[in-house]
Amino acid sequence: MIGLIDSALKNRVASNLLMVFLVIAGLASLAALNVRIFPQIDTGQINVTVPYPGATPEDVETSIVRPIEERLEGLEGVDKINGLASSNVGVVFVDIAQGEDMSEMLDEVKNEIARITVFPQDAEAPQISEIEPDEIVAQILLYGDVSRSLLKQTADRVRRDLANKDELSLVQISGVPDYLIDITVSEAELRARGLSLTAISNAISAQSLDLSGGEIEDDRQLLRVRAMGERRSGEEFANIVVGTGQNGTPIYLGDVATISDGLSDDPIDAIYNGQSAAMVTVFRVGNEKTIANSQVVQEYLKDDIENVLPAGVSYEFWRDEAVNLSERIDLLVRNALMGLALVTVLLLLFLDIRIAFWVAIGVGVSFVGAFFPMLLFGITLNQLSLFGFILAIGIIVDDAIVVGENIHANFRKGKRGLEAAHLGVTRVARPVMFSVSTTIAAFVPILMVPGLFGQFLGQVSAVVIILLVLSLIESFFVLPRHLSHLSDKEPKWYSPRGLAEPVRARVAHRLRQFSEGPFRSAMDFVVVRPVMVAMIGLGIFFAAQ
Fold first, then answer.
1. pTM, whole model, 2 decimals?
2. Sign for the pseudo-dihedral over CA of 485, 491, 492, 495
3. What is the dihedral of CA 117, 120, 125, 126, to 10 degrees?
4. pLDDT tens figures, 329-381
5. pLDDT one-digit tens code per residue, 417-435
6. Which residue among 52, 166, 219, 376 sits deepest, i.e. has the most Cβ atoms within 10 Å of its Cβ?
7. Torsional class of 187: left (φ above 0), alpha (ψ -120 to 50), beta (otherwise)
8. What's the number of CA atoms in the CB half-sphere (13 Å) around residue 311?
9. Contact 310/57 with Cβ under 8 angstroms?
């Protein structure tokens, strides 16, 4: 370490290049960092979804959910399995044990599911993915004195428009029931045509399907075969053949049933200003950026939505998380700048202005340079990581103050230039290294806290550790070279140093009076009467209980 410090002292270009590299790399990384409200959370869950069109919940449980559960029960690394069987689809949630690698477990689950041979022929290919929490970006409220069907159709149109944007991956509708195609068959028609409800139900199931036909793979490509035959409107259902007449003519569903398109009877009723309402919600997924997604939504509202809304339907930009995110980040940045300014003022009051200046520059360089390792280690800019910056302001200046003040002390003793810088930094290098190391050691266990709580706190701990390492590098390899240029030339009265020196001298005099007066007396009392001090401490402790 001493050899590296000496090399940096002797090479002015290397020290300056190191500082410039940290600044440039940090600024370049800042542009690439993902800005979020909260850090990326690993849920530790894998989702297995198997569509089974036309199946009842009982059939799905027997044919889909149970085989998956039985296959995954003995898999090492699986903590818990929860299955959900509903009409047309089976879903299994697999909780992965702490400490397991999610990518490896995802591959293991895929391999185990691929070995299942008892899935029904009509079941589609399993969809297996890691569950990632979705983060709301924006919400658009649609409302008006119109029918709920028209409001639903409008919300669907807005959702499709937004989902077709390359920047947006997940857009959902809420506040209105799902579509429902109502088919009513009279008993008289059934008897007259010799049909039954079971026959009609089977005909509808057979002729309204969206099935996977498997895959065709060669050396260059993989093709998925799919039969697209699902009916989506009452008119399409009316053309389903449900039987044949006495003369062999086909009997269509529309001939024997009354078919109407509408909404389900779910108790969902959103109201805004006394009018029916629906909500279109845009989510941030994966590595998408909240602010960038919000800008896409704002551009759509500005340029396109008026062409979509029918008469009587209005919209309101109900929620914009980009605004909340920007406000919270601005608040934390203002607090960080305020803390940095207060630290700088205190440095100016107690240290030579030249040392205070380079120490403050070192803090700024460490802050900017920290964005580079944050990008390397996948740490995003969020409320918790920014709090780590605020927490570290008062910590990272300590080593720079010790190094800078020791260099200045050697300068006052008559040493000059590189000699003063060499003696100043090498004499305190070991204690400064131990001091920073013990602080880092206190934050390292936080990185190992399991669960969601650990994932939140880990962001704060990681940022503080990065800043401590960078401040140590700056204090050993950059700061001494800059302070080697100290001179004993008297400053002009109007220069910054000439104006600050009287104030610093007055503060130093008051501090000396305090340390040699009340503080020394208190220390003498503590040293001479240790038993009494211990009893006073115990008394305060018990009184506070």
1. 0.68
2. positive
3. -70
4. 787 778 778 877 887 787 777 777 777 788 888 888 888 999 999 999 888 88
5. 778 787 878 888 888 888 8
6. 52
7. alpha
8. 0
9. no
